[in-house]
Each structure stands twice: as C-alpha cells, then as structure tokens.
Amino acid sequence: MTDPSKNQMMFDKIDLHLIRVLNTVLTERSVSRAAIRLGMYQPAVSASLKRLRELAGDPILVRSGAGMVPTDAGLRMIEPSASILRAAGMLFSDAKGFDPGTADATFRIAASDYLDPLFLPQLVAQIKTQAPRCHIDIQPLSPDSDYRSHLAQGQVDIVIGNWSSPPDDLHMGRLFGDEVVCLVAKDHPAVRKKWDAANPTSWLEAEHIAPTATHPGAKGIIDEHLAKLGLSRNITVRCPHFGLMPSMVASSLLVMTTGRQYCERFAGLLPVKILPCPIEFPRMMYYQLWHERTHASAAAKWLRDHVKSVANALRKQ
What we know:
Layout lengths: L3 H9 L3 H13 L2 H8 L3 H15 L4 E4 L2 E4 L1 H20 L1 H4 L9 E6 L7 H12 L4 E6 L6 H6 L5 E5 L8 E8 L1 E6 L3 H4 L8 H5 L2 E4 L9 H8 L6 E5 L5 H6 L4 E5 H8 L4 E5 L7 E7 L7 H19 L1
Parallel strand pairs: 3-4, 3-5, 8-9, 8-10
Antiparallel strand pairs: 1-2, 5-12, 6-12, 7-10, 7-11
Helix pairs in contact: 2-3, 2-4, 2-5, 3-4, 7-14
C-alpha cells in the first residue's frame, strides 16, 4: 500500500519549472535542444534531468545510437506533463487578459473537411502572424465525432462545421450560408444538356459521389433533404476524403453536390464546371460551436473572433 506521506514529500519536491524541463526534454529528445528552447544553460538542464530521474526512479531518457529516446515511463509522462503546463498557463491568463503577441497558448480546433479549402490555411496564417508563440492543434471532425464531449472535457476549444440543425446545448456563432450546387467535369453531358428542374430524374439517375457514410443507413445533409422529398440519388462512389472528391469528378462522369463556395475553389484549378442543382435545397449553414467552459475565456474569444473574420473575408472573395 502506498504511503500518502511519501507521495506528498515527492510532490513537494516538484515545481512547475521542473515539469517544463521534463516535457521539453522528452519532446525534444535532446538535452542541448531542450536547453536552447528553454533559454537555459545545458548543465542546468542536465541537473534538472538528474533530479527528475531520482524522483521517477527511472532514466526517463536514454541513449539510442547518435540520439536519445524516452523510456516507457518517459513516454507516459509526455501527455500528463503537457496537460499540467496547459492548465498552469490558463490559470491566470484570462485574469490578465489575452495578449496575442506574448501569449503561449494552444488552440484546439475541430473542423469539417467540407469547409472552404482556403479556410484553415488562412486561419492558421492569421493566428501565427498575430500570436507567433501560440500552438494550433487541428483535429478532424467527422459526423460521428463526439464533439460535445470533446468540448466539455477541454480536448477541443471550438468546432467548425455545417449542420442542418445545430445543437442547442452549446454556444453557437453563425459563419456563413452557402448555396447548394453541382460540380461536374467540363465535358459532362449535363454541361451541354442542362438538367430539367421540372423533371430532375436525369440528375437523380446520374452517377453521384458522396462522403462515406458513418454507419450503414446514415445520410448526409443532401440525402436527408432528398429523403424528405421522397427521392434518392444514384450514389456510385463514396469517399472518406472530401478534399479528393473534386479531382475524381474532373476525370469522370461523377456529380458532386455541395456548397458553391467550396466548388469555386476548384473551378480554376481543375477541368470542372459548376452547375445549378435541379432540386432546390436549403442553404448549407456553417457555424462555430463552443462550450460554456470557454465562453468567458479571453483567449478563446480572441480565437472565435478570428474564425469569424476569416469566414467573412472568404465570403467576399
């Protein structure tokens, strides 16, 4: 049985600086590189590593060829030490306000790949220009992601995507609405002979490409709306990577149905053409969602403002 008093004595010997040295040495896998990143002399880092090894009862970092690698115990320390540093960084940051020029925060963004392909590159560029010391962790957002739990637990700061009915248990900011159109190859028969809005059978029977279903029977926004109308389209290709679909369309007779803003990014890059959809769809609505946990955070508000700014700028292009 572990003696609580011994644990307390060990914890009393650990300060935040020691945790920072631990995380930096483990991620850099080099005492010299860690010293540069920490702004310390190498002997001081080596001395701290020696203390850490004594506390852990483990080498933590060992030689492997010309470099160094973490031990199993060291590997298990990487994420907990990073978590401690993140928590410490947030402890008083909002009380002092958020200064992007000096802040050392990590922004965690979950985003749908249905977004305008320029959105994330421009957001990252804007953040890194104004907050150069901040880190950005972009995570995929699939329709089956438990983003509510990730937001509540702090694994994600904001979620960006499109929903026909956004959840009402989270804070929400509307980014933009987009017209639903069709993307086809330039030599697709529909370019010469337009689809008939009065009789959309030829469009429904054409070969369609759609995102991979998250589970058998699952429908996306397009197919949900068609189902409400008592219609279904002929999906012959499903792809889990939305960004690859325009290239597949360009060299086939496939039809891709999605937002105009997304399609326009490929119109000048690929031999494709944007056509009106013969069936009227509601506009695709894009939002950013966040939890009450970060609603009052100055850093999170700064991030949300920049997400909105990038969305507005892209909408005007």
